[in-house]
UniProtKB/TrEMBL annotation, chain A:
Gene Ontology molecular function, alphabetical: iron ion binding; oxidoreductase activity
Domain of life: Bacteria
Protein source organism: Marinitenerispora sediminis
Pfam family, one: Ald_Xan_dh_C
Name of the protein this chain belongs to: Acylaldehyde oxidase
Record domain Aldehyde oxidase/xanthine dehydrogenase a/b hammerhead: where: 24-138
Transmembrane spans: none
Length: 723, 289
């Protein structure tokens, strides 16, 4: 690192550089872009059967409605090439729905028509006039029916390293021989993406070039998919997405709004905007799939794990296979000789699920960590002690050492801040001043530290400032800010003289903004590009120690460097994961069985923390999501017709401010020399992992009752006690 | 859709009489949701926000006359001593934004069995004032709710106000929801004690096709409560009171909660509010003398 006044800016709690813009309403979100004259609005008509054919579709009334420019259906929509395209965030098995290309309906809420009109109101009204009748076909609607026909993820998932079956040793035999055993089933409902900004796109064609202003975590993939769908060379498509109003994974794939906006815009030869309604967010975008897990653990009487058997099944659609790594953590989180995992997917007539913050891990770790608590109870052992007893410095699923692992330090740090030592181990023994039952629970958290190739450009200007850019996204974690910090530190320029730009396919290529790998991947590229630009500037005047701003003034013209970085073999030599420990306090009304969460305390080992302020808010935000998963969130799907029942924010309950108590997140000191040049392991998702388990375990501690199906509703806490 | 925007109460009544199908809109916190979700597409909207009287409140004999359009926020801030149960319920409504707009008149207009204002109105024996070009009539809240979202209001009538008897003893309200705010009640309960008449009033929310009373529980409590000293009710009395309240409910299973839980919760809320009310009663007695 360079040695100027700015040298210590990495690691500082810098406030968001885009904060003032956002607070003042100056940040432009996808649907707010002005594409120039002639903008029309599209409103989507969606299917009302889970499976079948469109028998008839009558658009006459809609076409005659005021302001209507066009009504697109499979009968008049342009036939699109829909070339094969599988981005990293697309399921490798199956094929996306080809919108308005045929009469086939594969799920409730599938777009079957688009009304395009001068105003949004006119479009919505016209959409309501489209009459569709269906020839329903038999459908798998209930999850239980789908589970009966569950299958392994498939060969293309195997190529990506996601197997249906995994493990080591002989778990069944070890379980049979284990002196202490527990076995339980955990049910996790579907959880829907509900960022405050719904998905929306503005599309404009001019001279055969398509420009899309879109809400996305990956502009380059939107470009690639649209190029494939419309049969265009990718350089004829530009995607712009400078601000994202929350995504949590919902922006990983382009949804129907993108294709429909582009299709309609070409059809009517005017710019078109299509924004999903909140209800459509439940029928068109992906979601965290419903799943059922069965965990069996065996241990000796000292709490040494002897066997882990973990089986899980989650829902997918009939036209694509969405599989996620739900069980991997059971293979590496603890030391254990005999482990068996078995993962299946259950196809159902629904839209395809997709990644939601901490995909797979949030689900699998929930089941494992609830089971660990059950084991601790069976052993009459402190739950923290049980985890520490099975701590390991080697990833036993691969046999390679962890690049760094501070699980023990996390339990110590968080446990101390939480006051775990005050816990009376007996369930139901603690009360608060209001007479509520108090419970303390804990769980481990883990998320892999991954890295992708990334490219960044640093452009140093004669006025001593710098513009650094890459096509990344900032859906909320503070990428604008952290990249500015890395750039400023590397260049040796003050923070205010550095601007970071993102969200445009014209910029150097960033990896998808997901997987908690942006800091590791793009941070490395930004660092390298800035170092190279600085080197070039200093080389021009032949001095290595000069003040960069002065040098730039002297040179008098821009100095630029574009650098692509990629991971080496470090992730084969080391197993790299962030780890954490989260503690929950619950207060349970003994009569009403309402559960409140006065406190969540977590400690995390994530390598280097570039910005403790934005990092902390990543974790606490993740904790609130975990709380929602634990207590209120679930998408009710009608088992008769696979329709999401509670598709509004009045019925799909996320936590509100009044539900959130004290949130405390700290990072333990951790230096990881192996993972990447910055030494960062990623912290965007781990904050959600384990939270629901810690809460469930605390509910058990408060009440003596295991609630194994989420969310923890009053009925479930009250259980058999209800008359 | 026609938009009628009368500036005076007389114009409003005339408009409603001329267009009985016009949907009144006050705070709009129910109406706009219905329009947004396309549950309803009325031929005409009758905007009441320009009628000053609806936002006023004033004594009316020994009662408080509360204009139908007074928002919850005002009730919480200004009327907690004149209408304790209603103020407690108002505080439990939604969020600050909704409380700034939502009104008791709107709650009565929609007459959802889950509306938070209903249990206090029932428990305190409030009166609903209805008006039309034909005249004014006053209907006790206890006779107002006729069936699922059906009320004693005729199509040409508007809700002018509610009349709240001066509190003659402690009043309590309790609500259970799936989260701590912005939530429709899973069950709610209001209790009002009248020390002068030695009677008790109850109101049950979200546990039947309409807001309900528990008349047997009221009679039982009137007989069993220690009106002289406000002694804490014995566990047996509290238990029985809770059981009678639960028995008066007619809940169903829905996405927010099961019928069984609702009954259970009501018995708990009834016991608790009784305990709180008895404590208030003793405090008031001590303060008086
Ligand atoms: C986010 C949200 C949260 C909510 N939470 C709660 C809650 O916690 N508890 C609760 O009880 N409610 C809740 N509600 C519902 C709503 O806020 C209440 O019912 C409120 O009392 C409605 O009052 P308003 O003035 O907004 O009514 P409006 O929406 O204006 O009208 C409601 C109904 O009453 C009719 N009406 C209004 N005024 C008159 C009148 N003077 N004469 C005749 N008819 C009339 C209307 O035609 C309509 O049918 C919530 C609503 C929202 C949007």
């Amino acid at each position: 690192m360079t040695s100027t006044a700015a040298a210590s800016v990495v690691g500082q709690p810098v406030s968001r550089v885009d904060g003032p813009l956002k607070v003042a309403g100056g940040a432009t979100y996808a649907a707010e872009f002005d594409p120039g004259p002639g903008l029309c609005h599209g409103a989507i008509v969606t299917s009302t059967v889970a499976s079948g054919r469109i028998a008839s579709i009558d658009t006459a009334a809609a076409e005659a409605a005021p302001g209507v420019v066009a009504v697109l259906t499979h009968r008049n929509a342009p036939v699109l090439p829909y070339h094969e395209h599988k981005g990293l965030t697309d399921p490798p098995e199956g094929e996306r729905i080809h919108l308005l290309q045929d009469d086939r309906v594969r799920h409730q809420g599938q777009p079957v028509a688009l009304a395009v009109a001068e105003t949004l109101e006119e479009a919505v009204y016209a959409a309501s006039l489209v009459r569709v009748s269906y020839r329903p076909e038999s459908a798998v609607t209930a999850f239980s029916d789908a589970v009966a026909h569950a299958v392994p993820p498939g060969p293309r998932y195997r190529d990506r390293g996601l197997e249906g079956d995994g493990g080591r040793g002989d778990a069944d035999a070890a379980l049979g021989a284990a002196p202490v055993r527990i076995e339980a089933e955990y049910v996790m409902p579907r959880l829907n993406h509900n960022p405050i900004e719904p998905h929306g796109t503005v599309a404009r064609w001019s001279e055969g070039e398509l420009t899309l202003w879109d809400k996305t975590q990956w502009v380059d993939n939107v470009r690639a998919e649209m190029a494939a769908v419309f049969g265009l060379p990718p350089d004829r498509v530009r995607v712009v997405s400078p601000f994202v109003g929350g995504a949590f994974g919902s922006g990983l794939r382009p949804w129907a709004n993108v294709t429909l906006a582009a299709m309609a815009s070409r059809h009517v030869d005017r710019p078109v905007k299509v924004v999903l309604t909140r209800r459509q967010m439940f029928g068109i975008t992906g979601y965290r799939p419903r799943s059922t897990h069965r965990v069996a653990l065996g241990a000796d009487r000292d709490g040494q794990l002897l066997a882990i058997r973990h089986e899980g099944v989650s829902e997918t659609s009939t036209y694509e296979t969405y599989a996620e790594e739900q069980l991997g953590s059971s293979e590496y989180l603890y030391a254990c000789r005999d482990v068996a995992t078995r993962y299946r997917v259950a196809p159902r007539n629904v839209q395809t699920p997709n990644d939601m913050r901490g995909p797979g891990k949030v689900t699998g770790v929930h089941a494992l960590e609830c089971a660990m608590d059950e084991l601790a109870a069976a052993l009459d052992m402190d739950p923290v002690e049980l985890r520490l007893r099975n701590d390991t410095i080697v990833d036993q699923s691969t046999g390679v050492p962890f690049s760094s692992r501070s699980l023990r330090e996390c339990y110590q740090a968080a446990g101390e801040r939480f006051g775990w030592s005050r816990r009376n181990p007996r369930p139901g023994a603690m009360r608060d001043e209001r007479g509520r039952l108090v419970g303390y629970g804990c769980a481990s958290a883990t998320w892999p530290a991954m890295r992708q190739a990334a490219e960044a450009r640093a452009r140093l200007l004669p006025d001593g400032s710098a513009v650094v850019s890459s096509s990344s996204s900032d859906m909320g974690p503070g990428t604008y800010t952290s990249m500015t910090q890395v750039a400023a530190e590397t260049l040796g320029l003050p923070l205010e003289r550095v601007r970071f730009e993102l969200g445009d396919t014209r910029m150097p290529t960033a990896p998808v903004h997901g997987g908690s790998w942006t800091m590791a991947s793009l941070g490395s590229a930004v660092q390298a590009a800035c170092a190279e630009a600085r080197r070039r500037a200093l080389a021009e005047i032949g001095r290595a120690d000069a003040d960069l701003a002065a040098v730039l003034r002297q040179i008098g013209e821009p100095v630029e460097a574009t650098v692509r970085t990629e991971p080496g073999d470090e992730l084969r030599r080391y197993s790299a994961h962030s780890f954490g420990a989260v503690f929950a306090e619950v207060a349970v009304d003994p009569d009403l069985c309402t559960v409140r969460v006065p406190r969540l305390v977590g400690a995390y080992g994530v390598g280097r923390v570039v910005n403790p302020k934005t990092a902390r808010s990543q974790i606490t935000g993740g904790m609130v999501m975990g709380m929602g998963m634990a207590l209120t969130e679930r998408t009710e799907v009608d088992p008769r017709d696979a329709r999401p029942v509670n598709s509004s924010l009045a019925d799909y309950l996320v936590p509100v401010n009044a539900d959130v108590g004290e949130l405390d997140a700290v990072f333990v000191d951790e230096e990881d020399p192996h993972v990447n040049p910055l030494g960062v392991k990623g912290l965007g998702e781990i904050g959600t992992v384990g939270v629901a388990a810690a809460i469930c375990n605390a509910v058990y501690h408060a009440t003596g009752r295991r609630v194994r199906e989420l969310p923890v509703t009053v009925e479930r806490v009250l259980g058999a006690a209800v008359r | 859709m026609e938009f009628l925007s009368p500036a005076t109460w007389e114009e409003a009544l005339a408009a409603k009489s001329a267009r009985p199908d016009a949907v009144p809109i006050m705070g709009g916190t129910d109406v706009m949701v219905e329009l947004n979700f396309d549950r309803r597409r009325p031929a005409a909207l009758l905007d009441l926000t320009r009628v000053p009287e609806l936002r006023e409140w004033a004594p009316d004999g020994d009662r408080l006359r509360l204009g139908a359009g007074v928002p919850y926020a005002v009730i919480v801030d200004r009327l907690a001593d004149r209408a304790p149960a209603l103020a407690l319920a108002s505080r439990a409504v939604a969020s600050p934004q909704i409380r700034n707009r939502g009104s008791v008149g709107g709650n009565l207009g929609g007459a959802s069995p889950a509306g938070d204002a209903h249990p206090p109105l029932l428990a305190t024996d409030a009166v609903v004032e209805l008006a039309s070009v034909r005249g004014v009539r006053r209907v006790p809240a206890r006779e107002f709710y006729l069936g699922p979202r059906r009320t004693a209001r005729s199509d040409d009538e508007l809700i002018a106000a509610v009349l709240l008897p001066a509190p003659a003893g402690p009043q309590q309200f309790a609500k259970i929801g799936t989260r701590n705010a912005m939530v429709i009640a899973v069950a709610s309960f209001a209790l009002a004690l009248d020390a002068g008449r030695r009677s008790a009033g109850t109101g049950i929310g979200s546990a039947g096709p309409t807001p309900l009373r528990a008349p047997e529980a009221e009679e039982f409590l009137a007989a069993e409560f220690d009106w002289a000293g406000g002694r804490p009710p014995s566990p047996a009395v509290a238990q029985e009171f809770g059981a009678l309240v639960a028995a008066a409910a007619r809940p169903i299973d829905d996405v927010r909660g099961s019928a069984a839980y609702r009954r259970h919760a009501l018995s708990v809320l009834a016991r608790r509010t009784l305990g709180w009310a008895a404590a208030d009663y003793r405090r008031e007695m001590a303060a008086c003398g």
